[in-house]
Amino acid sequence: MKEVRHIYPVFDQLVSRESKEWLLQQHSRVVWFTGLSGSGKTTIAKEAEKVLYEMGHTTMLLDGDNVRSGINNNLGFSHEDRRENIRRIAEASKLFLDCGIITLCCFVSPTEELRQLAKSIIGPKDFIEVYVNAPIEECERRDVKGLYAKARKGEIADFTGISAPFEAPSHPALELKTQGRKEEDCVKELLNFLLPIVRLDIAI
Predict the structure, then answer these.
(1) Fewest CB within a 10 Å sphere: which of 59, 60, 182, 187?
(2) If you write DSSP's letter for every residue of 164-193 in order, what string do you get?
(3) For the domain 18-198, what is the CATH code?
(4) pLDDT in tens, 155-176
(5) Closest CA to 32 of 68, 86, 73
(6) d(Cα 71, Cα 89) in Å, to the nearest integer?
(7) Residue 37 falls in the annotated catalytic set
């Protein structure tokens, strides 16, 4: 790694995270959704964000496609680029965390190594891993973009679940099994788990 010189962070001089949490009346956390493409990560997170917003919470949703079309548009899908993709997302999430914002991150993040990298940057106490679990057959059935079909034809290289591995989390904070379930039931299960953690009137 290139040595960085003449950098003088001023984080200790800024308004504290606790003060921002008090202003927003919430505990900030990073909710990290992992799972195969098509498992329901972003769909569930988007609906959960709407409910949190209606309840008065301040949130930010980071999604793989959105991030890769902007801040990470120079990255591919090699092991090195996947790692850098997750590193940048985790660093950005940490900034939102310090602003008192509940951050919802929807990324395949297919290996334990990558998820541990994100957790180490964000911090174990603030990192909530949610495994959105659906069999690959179900993910392919839902695939409106046709990505799995293209991957099976060899048109997309290093596609998770087809030509690149996916390591299921061994101890997620929450596992949401989406096959055969209504979207609203998955969202309700997520919020029942999450709300006691982010509500400011509950000591944690």
Answers:
(1) 182
(2) B-----SS-SEEEE-TT--HHHHHHHHHHH
(3) 3.40.50.300
(4) 888 888 888 889 999 999 999 9
(5) 86
(6) 9
(7) no
Whether the CB-CB separation of 86 and 107 falls below 8 Å is answered with yes
The region that residue 169 occupies, defined by phi over 0 for left and psi between -120 and 50 for alpha, beta otherwise, is: beta
Asked whether the whole model's pTM tops 0.85, one would answer: yes
Place of tokens 């891993």: 129
Provide the b/e sequence for 52-75 (b: ≥16 CB within 10 Å).
Answer: beeeebbbbbbbbeebbeeebeeb
Looking at 37, 39, 93, 109, which residue is catalytic? 109
CA dihedral of 97, 103, 105, 111, whole degrees rounded to 10? 40
Query: Residue length, the chain?
Result: 204
Q: Which residues of 159-190 are buried (b: 16+ CB within 10 A; e: fewer)?
A: bbbbebebeebeebebebebeeeeeeebbebb
Q: Residue 67 corresponds to which tokens in the numbers above?
A: 């991030």
